[in-house]
Specification:
Layout lengths: L4 H14 L13 E3 L13 E13 L5 E14 L5 H17 L8 E12 L8 E14 L7
Parallel strand pairs: 1-2
Antiparallel strand pairs: 2-3, 3-5, 4-5
Amino acid sequence: MSTAIREYIVRNIVTAIERISIDNGYDVDIKKVYRIPTSAFSSMVYPYAVVIDTGETLEEGKPVNYTTCFLKIQVVFYNQQWNNIRELSIQYISAIEFALHTDPTLGGYVVDLDVINNETFGTTETAPYGGGSVTFMVQYRHLIGNPYAQ
């Protein structure tokens, strides 16, 4: 069986986030990108990001013969740097937004890609990490009853 268009989209988002590095011209580095929710207290390599496809809504027959899908994607990032974590988190948010808008079609699969939310979270002395998240709404289409074909 082929790969579903939704899977191609998520893979392309992961690839875009993996390119975020100082060597590639960004102000920050993301060392690793995961596709499963993780705990910031686990033995992850910081800074890291988690790409979560949280669900989608579907509209069949718009346009005719197609299912229009609205896929919600959240990119959550974590960093262990204590100093200036808020400013650093804003840099990560900006880098993630820029990386995904470098190719807003994500390889030709996406009709529309919009940032719908971003937020930061801070640190405490007992949990010396911070980060944030960027949430996107991705619109794409596939043939009715065939999530593998555009």
